[in-house]
Amino acid sequence: MRDLVSISRFALLTDLSPRLLRKLDERGVLRPAWVDPETRYRYYSYAQVRQGNLVRLARQFQLPAAELRALLASDDPAALRAALERHRGRLRQRLADLERLLGLLDHELRRSEVPFSYRCELRDEGGRRVACAAGAAPRLHPHDPLALEAEIERVGDAVFARLAALGVEPAGPPFVVYYDRPDEADRITFDVCVPLPPGTPPPATGPRVRVCDLPPATLAVTTHEGPYETAWNAYAALGLWVAEQGLEVCGPVRETGVVSALDTPDPTRWVTEIGLPVRRPEPGLAPAGQRRGDGGRGADGGRGEKPHPGPTPAATPAP
């Protein structure tokens, strides 16, 4: 018993409260060296002070529980150092993520006197002929669009390369049409579209790049300034405005890069126009999203919640 100390004494040696030590015992993380069978008092050995200090460090530095258990079962100082080095890398990544979020928040606060405010309006657009190609990306967290943006860039490069090879000049900035397909719950599908000059006959574009006709539409439009990561604010504002106007979404959402990575590498200077095809609901019909069989489509328009169909194929390619 001389080399054993009470739970209160052990708590002082390790800076762990008796209450926490009892929980660690119940969870099998740090068990006492001996428990009095009559009083049920817990006693710890001096050799366990190192383990107690490891627990304190793990709690202080938010070390994963699995690594803590492995360290408690090992007396290897090199293993401890390696675990702390790995966790240091995780903390640095977490810090970088927080700094990135802070930068996005600062940008939003600078964007206007009222953060997250957007001007929305209706705009009639005539039909347009476009060269387009389809793409898809995993359905990720809406605030982590990196994989989606990389795939959009890859598909867009294919469209521009094909038009350049054919000597066809674009008639405007490219835009992306997103779809919400019930049978594709794990990914987002889209078309990258490049407007063609009016009256341009459909060129022979090949199997990947095709020519399509966008029908005339009335769009609910707003503009987002800044990185794509904060574009969900614009989608939320536009969806709310559409609902307040008593409109319903009737087609896939379009994103146009008015100023994009093609123009400047600085994401704070990017300008993205978001357009939702809308219409007045027919008298006597429930709002969109409440009708049987409509797939629950509403006016939120966020990425991954896009109704369809989209562009229709143009006439047979000219020889």
How would you portray this structure in words?
The structure is a single chain. Strands 4, 5, 6, 7, 8, 9, 10, 11, 12 and 13 form a 10-stranded antiparallel sheet that branches. Strands 1-3-2 form a 3-stranded antiparallel sheet. By secondary structure, the protein is α+β, with helices and mostly antiparallel strands. The longest helix is centred in the first third of the chain and has 35 residues, at 77-111. It is elongated. The protein is built from 7 helices and 13 strands. The chain has 2 domains: 4-81, Multidrug-efflux Transporter Regulator, Chain: A, Domain 2 (Orthogonal Bundle); 121-313, Multidrug-efflux Transporter 1 Regulator Bmrr, Chain A (Alpha-Beta Barrel), CATH 3.20.80.10.
Helical segment count: 7
Q: Which residues sit in consecutive blocks of at least 5 with pLDDT less than 50? A: 289-309, 314-319
- CATH H level, superfamily name of the largest domain: Regulatory factor, effector binding domain
Order of helices and strands: EHHEEHHHEEHEEEEHEEEE
| Rounded Rg | 30 Å
| Overall CATH architecture of the largest domain | Alpha-Beta Barrel
Q: How many domains, in number, for the residues? A: 2
CATH hierarchy, class of the largest domain: Alpha Beta
Strand-pairing-aware structural class? alpha+beta
Q: Give the integer mean of the pLDDT values.
A: 80
Shape: elongated
Oligomer: single chain
> β content, as a range?
15-25%
What's the total number of strands? 13
Q: In CATH terms, what is the fold-level topology of the largest domain?
A: Multidrug-efflux Transporter 1 Regulator Bmrr, Chain A
Largest sheet: 10 strands, antiparallel
How far apart the termini lie comes to 97 Å
Helix content: 25-40%
